[in-house]
């Protein structure tokens, strides 16, 4: 099968090279499954030279904040973000796991002060492959599965 | 490193130089204290001890340290007697108390509470235990005790005995010992072995580690035996606790095989891990260890207050 043809979008964002099966999770954490007016397309299990299989998410009429890009990096570190204007890719970049993750992740430790008092959560990335982060407050480390469950 | 205003929250925040510096200041203060009886470096300064959960020993040790430095102490020893009971946030409690004091010592049942307190307060905050996370002053006083007893830490063979799985004290002590050239024997029941990630971390830092269940076979090797209590409340399952309860007891029979110079430490309180008959031997270092808390905490209080 040649390039899969799905509706092109006029303005918006295409998130490409998502590991196969993680596309729905991307939609979930960006809360795109809520009615927002734009078209949302998910292509799953698409053939990819780099990844074998990949997912692609297209969102019409939406551009991502830095925080949203960081969230994607945590669950789909291979993803690329394409910003589309007037049917053309105006900008393209790879997501990157930042050294510090602020505000977007909850601590998995129920006895961590950050789950009880007003704080902005903060984690330090201990390792990227596999992903491991340490809570700034309780110092406990979280691994991939826990991270996904607490985004 | 400028210590004035610095917070003491986690052993992770310390470098080897920091540790050595504190130990040296503590030693200097101990000598001065012996000569003069009382010191007045912190005259006019007030320590607030905020114990959101009770820990009488730790609180008395800090209070004694502050009094010995010539300062004074205010505080509470359980959250029940404060407006925390009325739902006040930790941040508000800290912001209020810092209006009354120059340095805060906090003990709190939640992990990360001391870090949060330090972020909120403009005055230095010292962690006296946050849940199962950190108790950095205990680790420093443990190192101080070893250094005072042997004149050094490098080159020693140290056994950690008991609950190495849940024991906060042994985790941070082991991490701090990784700064030194030591050999570690980790002696515990199978169920209570030191967590893998800590062992990996120590190995990466070049510590020679042996894991064993055999105390009697190991004891002849050791310079220091650090004993911990197996705590019932740490066990999710009572059955598991009963399986390991009383696994080890250090008594005079066991000690027959030890070097004469072996020193035994314990963060106390003990239950039955060390028989009282050991108290009268030269091996017992645990009460001396309790004393060490005072000069070490004097050093930390004085340094963070900027009066030393
Ligand atoms: Zn945490």
UniProtKB/TrEMBL annotation, chain A:
The keyword Transferase applies. The keyword Ribosomal protein does not apply. GO terms for biological process: 'de novo' pyrimidine nucleobase biosynthetic process; pyrimidine nucleotide biosynthetic process. One of its GO terms (molecular function) is metal ion binding. One of its GO terms (cellular component) is aspartate carbamoyltransferase complex. Its cofactor is Zn(2+). This is Aspartate carbamoyltransferase regulatory chain. It comes from Thermococcus radiotolerans.
TrEMBL record, chain B:
SUPFAM superfamilies: Aspartate/ornithine carbamoyltransferase (SSF53671). Residues 154-302 form the Aspartate/ornithine carbamoyltransferase Asp/Orn-binding domain. The keyword Protein biosynthesis does not apply. One of its GO terms (molecular function) is amino acid binding. One of its GO terms (biological process) is 'de novo' pyrimidine nucleobase biosynthetic process. Pathway: Pyrimidine metabolism; UMP biosynthesis via de novo pathway; (S)-dihydroorotate from bicarbonate: step 2/3. InterPro entries: Asp/Orn_carbamoyltranf_P-bd, Asp/Orn_carbamoylTrfase, Asp/Orn_carbamoylTrfase_sf, Asp_carbamoyltransf, Asp_carbamoyltransf_Asp/Orn-bd. L-aspartate binds at residues 86, 168, 229. It catalyses: carbamoyl phosphate + L-aspartate = N-carbamoyl-L-aspartate + phosphate + H(+). Keywords: Pyrimidine biosynthesis, Transferase. Its EC number is 2.1.3.2. Residues 6-147 form the Aspartate/ornithine carbamoyltransferase carbamoyl-P binding domain. PROSITE patterns: CARBAMOYLTRANSFERASE (PS00097). Carbamoyl phosphate binds at residues 57-58, 107, 135, 138, 268-269. Catalyzes the condensation of carbamoyl phosphate and aspartate to form carbamoyl aspartate and inorganic phosphate, the committed step in the de novo pyrimidine nucleotide biosynthesis pathway. PANTHER family: ASPARTATE CARBAMOYLTRANSFERASE, ORNITHINE CARBAMOYLTRANSFERASE, MITOCHONDRIAL. Belongs to the aspartate/ornithine carbamoyltransferase superfamily. ATCase family. Heterooligomer of catalytic and regulatory chains. This is Aspartate carbamoyltransferase. It comes from Thermococcus radiotolerans.
């Amino acid at each position: 099968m040649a390039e899969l043809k799905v509706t092109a979008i006029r303005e918006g964002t295409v998130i490409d090279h998502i590991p196969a099966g993680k596309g729905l999770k991307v939609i979930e954490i960006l809360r795109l499954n809520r009615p927002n007016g734009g078209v949302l397309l998910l292509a799953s299990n698409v053939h990819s030279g780099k990844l074998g299989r990949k997912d692609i998410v297209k969102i019409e009429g939406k551009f991502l904040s830095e925080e949203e890009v960081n969230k994607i990096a945590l669950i789909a570190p291979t993803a690329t973000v394409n910003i589309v204007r007037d049917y053309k890719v105006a900008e393209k970049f790879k997501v990157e796991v930042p050294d510090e993750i602020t505000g977007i992740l909850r601590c998995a430790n129920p006895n961590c002060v950050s789950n009880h008092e007003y704080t902005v959560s903060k984690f330090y990335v201990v390792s990227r492959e596999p992903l491991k982060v340490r809570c700034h407050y309780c110092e406990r480390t979280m691994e991939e599965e826990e991270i996904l469950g607490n985004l | 490193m400028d210590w004035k205003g610095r917070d003491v929250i986690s052993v992770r925040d310390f470098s080897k130089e920091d540790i050595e510096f504190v130990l040296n200041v503590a030693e200097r203060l101990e000598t001065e204290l012996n000569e003069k009886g009382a010191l007045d470096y912190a005259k006019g300064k007030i320590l607030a001890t905020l114990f959101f959960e009770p820990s009488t020993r730790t609180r008395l040790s800090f209070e004694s340290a502050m009094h010995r430095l010539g300062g004074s102490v205010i505080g509470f020893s359980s959250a029940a007697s404060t407006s925390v009971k009325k739902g006040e946030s930790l941040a508000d409690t800290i912001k209020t108390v810092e209006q009354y004091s120059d340095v805060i010592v906090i003990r709190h049942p939640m992990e990360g509470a001391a870090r949060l307190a330090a972020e909120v307060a403009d005055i230095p905050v010292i962690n006296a235990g946050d849940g199962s996370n950190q108790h950095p002053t205990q680790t420093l006083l443990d190192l101080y005790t070893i250094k005072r007893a042997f004149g050094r830490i490098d080159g020693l063979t140290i056994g950690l005995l008991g609950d190495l799985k849940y024991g906060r004290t042994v985790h941070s002590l082991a991490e701090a010992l990784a700064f030194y050239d030591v050999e570690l024997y980790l002696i515990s029941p199978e169920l209570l072995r030191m967590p893998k990630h800590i062992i990996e971390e120590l190995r990466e830092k070049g510590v020679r580690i042996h894991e064993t269940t055999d105390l009697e076979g190991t004891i002849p090797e050791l310079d220091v035996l650090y004993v911990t209590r197996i705590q019932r409340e740490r066990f999710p399952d009572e059955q598991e606790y009963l399986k390991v309860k009383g696994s080890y007891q250090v008594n005079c029979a066991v000690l027959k095989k030890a070097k004469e110079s072996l020193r035994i430490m314990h963060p106390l309180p003990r239950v039955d891990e060390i028989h009282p008959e050991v108290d009268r031997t030269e091996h017992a270092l645990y009460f001396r260890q309790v004393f060490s808390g005072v000069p070490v905490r004097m050093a930390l209080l004085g340094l963070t207050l900027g009066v030393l």
